[in-house]
Amino acid sequence: MWRNLSYAIFLLSCFTYAELSDTKNNEWDFLIFTQHWPATICRIWMEKPTHSCIMPHEQNSWTIHGIWPNKNHSMGPFFCNKTWSFDPDQVKSIETDLEESWGNIEKEQSLYSLWAHEWTKHGTCAASIEPLNCELKYFTKGLEWLKKYTMKNILNNAGITPSDMKEYKAIDFHNAVKTKLGFKPMVECHKVDGKQFLFEIRICFSKSLELIDCEDTHMTNTDIITNCKPTEGIIYPVTEKPPKRYLIQLHRLLSWLRWFTV
Ligand SMILES: *[C@@H]1O[C@H](CO)[C@@H](O)[C@H](O)[C@H]1NC(C)=O
Ligand SMILES: *[C@@H]1O[C@H](CO)[C@@H](O)[C@H](O)[C@H]1NC(C)=O
After folding, report:
1. Ligand 1 neighbour 213 (Cβ under 6 A)
2. pLDDT at position 25, please?
């Protein structure tokens, strides 16, 4: 019996310890709000030929990737409350807006997979502050910030518009945001077929939800916070589909056949 009791006490102390250490590790200093560019997300997703995309209805609109709590000089915390899984019912009232503005571009993924991922990985950590302490508040805040800090408009204001041909530099995107909002963003690229594409633009907030400069997590030690190669051109693409190689070949074959049969 004593043995069982001490076992129970040991278990209990483990629990208390785990809880304490978890709470400590789950602390964070600022939030990263990430908007991503659907045409680039789709190009990356469609590198696998069986994949397809769901694009937002509104043309040229950026969509939300997530709101991510972060510690100074490090990443995360992540997955702060493993018992708090995503419940679609909690966001039913805003689901239509979420589908348009925080939708899953990757069609072959399940409808809720992006929201479930963002909630369990980041939302459960963000929930330690009152304004974000439940699913509905977390996702509503994302929609609110997208409306207030619409990347399409911020870039438009600086004369930056999507184009499959034109090449921009990381500094162009940085300057557009810095000029409009007064704070430094993070500009993220992704390589597709050896070319740099504009992927995400992140802006940062203090724990009291005021805009602040993002932290130089990439340690580039330049004024711009970016993972893009600063000297290389960046495509901010209009179309989500690169022209399919087999279509070009088919076209060639058809014109050749036509010539041949004439
Ligand atoms: C994190 O960085 C911000 C801005 O530099 C600073 O105000 C804050 O005190 C830092 N927090 C911690 C816990 O170091
Ligand atoms: C963890 O999630 C549960 C819901 O599953 C919630 O009741 C509890 O308050 C959460 N704990 C913390 C520390 O947020």
Report:
1. no
2. 83
